[in-house]
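TOKENISE THE FOLD
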Amino acid sequence: MVSQRTEAPACISMGGTANLFTLTEKSGIGAVTGTIDGAAYGEPTSDLNSIGNGRFAYTMYHVFLDKDGSWLRTQDRAVLHTPAEDGVGTLEVEYTVVEATGRFAGYAGTFRSRGWVSMPKGEDATEQHAVGVVRFEGDICRQ
């Protein structure tokens, strides 16, 4: 019997999608499918800073958990473009891997997402749950 050893790929494509749901004003979760098949948790780590034209930049962190138990922790840069009238905004996030376990151990780099998010309005907007969906792209590579 010949034993074959599978080499880990030099890079992993981080394609997939996430359905987002805010839990509180400062936290949210997502059901993730694609390269990561599981869940994600995220929180902002800075205030929103206006960069003009209804766009706001801020920093975040995320923890992505795969169904096999592997996980990634990221530090992120996000840009939220608030809606004009329809209550829907766009969200772009750049995730930089700072810690990884399981099948992601030894990988680092940056991947991105882009998608839409509902934007509750009114005095009680922070008590309402925003929802959305983003699409991931990019690669993380072995160090």
Observations:
- The chain has a mean pLDDT of 90.
- The first strand starts at residue 11 and ends at 13.
- The chain has no helices and eleven strands.
